[in-house]
Amino acid sequence: xxxxxxxxxxxxxxxxxxxxxxxxxxxxxxxxxxxxxxxxxxxxxxxxxxxxxxxxxxxxxxxxxxxxxxxxxxxxxxxxxxxxxxxxxxxxxxxxxxxxxxxxxxxxxxxxxxxxxxxxxxxxxxxx
Length: 128
Known about the structure:
Layout lengths: L1 E4 L14 E4 L2 E4 L17 H18 L7 E8 L5 H11 L7 E6 L9 E8 L3
InterPro entries: RidA, RutC-like_sf, YjgF/YER057c/UK114
Protein name: RidA family protein
Pfam family, one: Ribonuc_L-PSP
């Protein structure tokens, strides 16, 4: 049975999708962008601040699904400028231990929702 995940600690969906779905012990998050969940503001002052907000939103969705960042098996990262990769990667490393980091891909795209610079989704395994 598919379970729908929702938390007010992450931005509400801006379309016909869920923040995450769970099937068995598998958790699939929707892509998170840098919308502050309480104010609704886009956090795009710097790529570091934007990436941090994206990862905080992802962390909140995972928590609502009963997971931690250490439960993530794979991330998909979409960015508008590959020249920002090093700055994004530095913030990403604050959230994932290099020794146990998930698999991932980073893809440059032309445009993201709300014209943000980065979007991240994840697949995780829920324990128990």
